[in-house]
């Protein structure tokens, strides 16, 4: 690589570009960009954590013990999670106690079924995403969650599936739902989904029926009468892509 290209890499880095965009523009690997930057006295790590040589660990641990939210602590002191816990262990600082009641006293307790639910979601998660993809019309974006309204991961009927754009929105829904249930409040789960960023999937037109056995849609032999059409079926039929 000639000196002109190396100067261009340094110039883009000084303008604030990350390693991946720089490598894409130059047409080389990120490791090569890193090596060029090191030769020119630059460091992506130091740019991200400029105060790494002067961290005030007494102040950091004081904020930690005073229960500052962990993400806010990392942002305030410009320190990574890995570096923080490495220094915490070296200094013998104990993990702070978790807030909230333990076990059955916690409003998020689910009768000890968490491990089983995780196993079931791993087993049936792919099937749920395939059904959701068929209704969504394109692959589900990376990071999106497919939620089962009845919390049974094996029941992948389209009417039981909802999309959340991320883990944060999905967890907020569950936490809010459990909190209201523990308080004895009657909950409208469908409204709670919308309030927390959930997206309902468009159902296929009425002449198509989902089979739980095959996990696919099948064309009905007889068309349902207009009186049997659910509200919004014309809109759904126009929006549903039969490809």
> How many helices does DSSP assign?
11
Helical residues, percent: 40-55%
The averaged pLDDT comes out at: 76
Largest sheet: 3 strands, antiparallel
- Give the total of beta strands: 5
Report, as a whole number of angstroms, the end-to-end distance.
Answer: 48 Å
Q: How do the SSEs run, as a string of H and E?
A: HHHHHHHHEEHHEEEH
Structural class: mainly alpha
Shape: flat
**Unreliable runs:** 222-243
How much of the polypeptide forms β-strand, as a percent range? 5-15%
Describe the strand arrangement of the main beta sheet, using strand numbers. Answer: 1-2-3
Gyration radius (Cα, Å) is: 26 Å
Which characteristics define this entry?
three-stranded antiparallel sheet; 243 residues; 5 strands; mainly alpha; Arc Repressor Mutant, subunit A; single chain; 11 helices; disordered C terminus
Description:
- The structure is a single chain.
- The chain has 243 residues and is mainly α.
- Among the domains are: 3-48, Arc Repressor Mutant, subunit A (Orthogonal Bundle); 114-200, no CATH class; 208-239, no CATH class.
- It has eleven helices and five strands, in the order ααααααααββααβββα.
- Strands 1-2-3 form a three-stranded antiparallel sheet. Strands 4-5 form a two-stranded antiparallel sheet.
- The model is unreliable at 222-243 (pLDDT under 50).
């Amino acid at each position: 690589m000639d000196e002109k290209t190396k100067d261009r890499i340094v110039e883009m880095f000084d303008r604030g570009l990350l390693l991946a965009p720089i490598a894409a523009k130059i047409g080389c690997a990120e490791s090569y960009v890193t090596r060029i930057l090191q030769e020119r006295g630059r460091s992506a790590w130091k740019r991200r954590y400029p105060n790494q040589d002067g961290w005030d660990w007494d102040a950091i641990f004081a904020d930690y013990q005073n229960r500052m939210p962990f993400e806010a602590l990392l942002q305030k002191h410009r320190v990574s999670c890995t570096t923080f816990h490495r220094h915490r262990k070296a200094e013998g600082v104990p993990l702070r106690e978790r807030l909230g009641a333990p076990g059955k006293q916690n409003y998020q307790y689910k009768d000890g079924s968490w491990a089983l639910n995780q196993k079931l979601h791993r087993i049936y998660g792919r099937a749920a995403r395939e059904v959701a993809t068929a209704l969504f019309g394109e692959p589900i974006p990376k990071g999106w969650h497919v939620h089962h309204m009845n919390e049974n991961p094996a029941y992948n009927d389209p009417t039981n599936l909802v999309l959340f754009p991320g883990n944060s929105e999905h967890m907020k829904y569950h936490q809010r739902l459990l909190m209201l249930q523990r308080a004895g409040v009657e909950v409208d789960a469908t409204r709670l989904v919308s309030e927390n960023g959930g997206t309902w999937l468009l159902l296929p037109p009425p002449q198509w029926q989902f089979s739980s056995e095959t996990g696919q849609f099948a064309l009905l032999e007889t068309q349902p009468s207009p009186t049997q059409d659910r509200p919004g079926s014309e809109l759904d039929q126009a929006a549903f892509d039969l490809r």
